[in-house]
Amino acid sequence: MDDRKAREQIVRFGRKMLETGLTRGTGGNLSCRSAGDRIAVSPSGMEYDRITPTDVVILSETGKILSGDRKPSSETPLHLELYRNRPETGAVVHTHSIYISVLACLGWEIPPFHYLMATFGGRIPVASYAHFGSRELALSALAAIGEGKAVILANHGFVTVGENIGEAFAAAETAEFLAEIYYKTRCVGEPRCLDDDQVDRLNKLFEDYGRSNGAG
Ligand SMILES: [Zn+2]
Questions:
Q1: What's the CA-to-centroid distance between 51 and ligand 1, angstroms?
Q2: Mean confidence (pLDDT) of the chain
Q3: How many angstroms separate the alpha carbon of residue 69 from the centre of ligand 1?
Q4: Which residue of 8, 156, 183, 184 has the fewest CB atoms within a 10 Å radius of its CB?
Q5: How far is 118 from 124, CA to CA, in rounded Å?
Q6: How confident is the model at residue 1 (pLDDT cuts 50, 70, 90)?
Q7: Predicted TM-score of the model (pTM)
Q8: CA separation for the pair 98, 24 (Å, rounded)
Q9: CA atoms within a 13 Å half-sphere pointing along the CA-CB vector of 25
Q10: What is the DSSP string of 68-97?
Q11: Residue 14 neighbours by CB distance under 10 Å
């Protein structure tokens, strides 16, 4: 991956984020690794359908601007904290999708209520509230996500990490789908959750499935 390719990916997935309803307006933001510790981050406050590759900012892991004239996303501290502490992270996607946001406002984590929750290790936790763009938010998200790949930000939205931006984006879409089902289930009753053994078996099946599809 080089800066040109990384910038193109930010543009492409930013548009996709808007098209798929994972955010509205200028909300949410995304980043991916370029070469070495260079990180491509979406610019602050720009409409996703107006962003071109030259608007994407390249930063170091410590937040120094290496290339680009725009101001990087206001959630840059959150993105960088994840890259620094989870070196395997290749991309970070932050969304404001509706059902996840409903759960974020309720402060509800998502338990293992559906088989696809195994793709998130069984649970999606909630990070305690801190205001947007703050280092406190970055630290609370990092503490809550642990070794997992997703975390709900209380009273705000959602964050996923992935080996690449396609993977992180797909996880954000799956989480929104699950959040909608979870919300609707809770509207009519108490979901019957899967137990640890059932989640473990699913984890293994998803691992095998990933390998047989060349993703392992
Ligand atoms: Zn946000």
A1: 18
A2: 95
A3: 22
A4: 184
A5: 10
A6: confident
A7: 0.95
A8: 10
A9: 4
A10: -SSPB-TTHHHHHHHHHH-TT--EEEEE--
A11: 25
What's the DSSP call for residue 134? -
CA 204 – CA 102 distance, rounded (Å): 31
Residue 215 has pLDDT above 60, yes or no: no
Query: How confident is the model at residue 200, as a pLDDT?
Result: 94
Q: In the predicted model, is pLDDT for residue 216 greater than 80?
A: no
Catalytic-role residue among 75, 81, 173, 176: 75
Q: Is 88 a catalytic residue?
A: no
Specify the amino acid at residue 84: R
pLDDT tops 90 at residue 124: yes
pLDDT exceeds cutoff 60 at 19: yes
Whole-angstrom Cα distance, residue 61 to residue 140? 19
Predicted local confidence at residue 213, as pLDDT: 61
How far, in Å, from the CA of 20 to the mean position of ligand 1? 16
Report the alpha-carbon distance of residue 204 to residue 201 in Å, rounded: 5
Ligand 1 centre distance from Cα of residue 96 (Å): 6
